[in-house]
Design goal:
Layout lengths: L2 E7 L4 E6 L6 H8 L10 E7 L17 H13 L3 E8 L4 H4 L3 H6 L5 E4 L2 E4 L3 H7 L5 E8 L6 H6 L4 H17 L3 H11 L1 H15 L7
Parallel strand pairs: 2-3, 2-4, 4-7
Antiparallel strand pairs: 1-3, 5-6, 6-7
Length: about 220
């Protein structure tokens, strides 16, 4: 399940992609990372890491960044200082409504995940590291796809889940991150294709980070 790839695509932004962040998520994220080809990329330096199964600790808890893997990820961030940082997560489809409800904010102080469409969810990264390990100019995204190994026929039917459309939605956003040469380009394209989600992300960013912090 572990996977590493480095692509030197010339001068341009540095982009770091992390999968397998906790639990068994690496089974899902690895499938997406291995489908990336060089035609999907902007200029720049690309680093892809996917980790083996680890105990599940939420990234909104300080304990995560004190764990062996959490410290390793912080080391990668400090070393590469990426202009684009993307976490590829997966979630149990049965938790979809809980993850996207404002009850999450009321209970934890962390805004809910945003529905991108077709059961793909998106958000910023953990506030525990967003403000301390990245500049405001960095693009920091969390992408969430239903965990492949947890999809049962019952869940698929209950949630009217369409695998083909979900993969297309997820990969469209992933490819936008891969192809974007700058934050400005990424922001323009997000506003063009996902204005409602961006406006919601801006609202949530103000709650967590303050008035002038960007939503990514």
């Amino acid at each position: 399940m572990s996977y590493f790839r480095y692509i030197d695509n010339g001068r341009g932004p540095t982009k770091l992609f992390i999968g397998g962040i906790h639990g068994n998520e690496g089974l899902t994220s690895r499938r997406f990372l291995k489908r990336i080809n060089e035609d999907d990329l902007s200029d720049g330096q690309f680093y892809f890491y996917n980790f083996d199964k680890t105990p599940y600790i939420s990234t909104i808890k300080k304990e995560y960044y004190e764990s062996e893997l959490g410290l390793k990820i912080l080391g990668l961030i400090n070393y590469f200082r990426p202009d684009f940082y993307t976490e590829l997560h997966c979630y149990d489809l049965k938790n979809h409504d809980k993850l996207t409800s404002m009850e999450r904010y009321e209970k934890t102080g962390i805004p809910p995940l945003i529905k991108l469409g077709n059961h793909v969810l998106v958000s910023s990264i953990s506030p525990l590291i967003r403000m301390t390990y990245f500049s405001t100019d960095a693009v920091c995204k969390t992408l969430e796809f239903p965990c492949f190994e947890k999809l049962t026929p019952e869940l698929i039917e209950k949630h009217n889940f369409n695998m083909e459309l979900a993969i297309e939605t997820y990969e469209d956003l992933l490819k936008l991150i891969l192809k974007s040469p700058s934050r400005n380009y990424f922001e323009r394209e997000m506003m063009k294709h996902h204005r409602r989600q961006v406006e919601l992300a801006m609202k949530y960013a103000k709650k967590v980070f303050g008035e002038n912090f960007p939503p990514y």
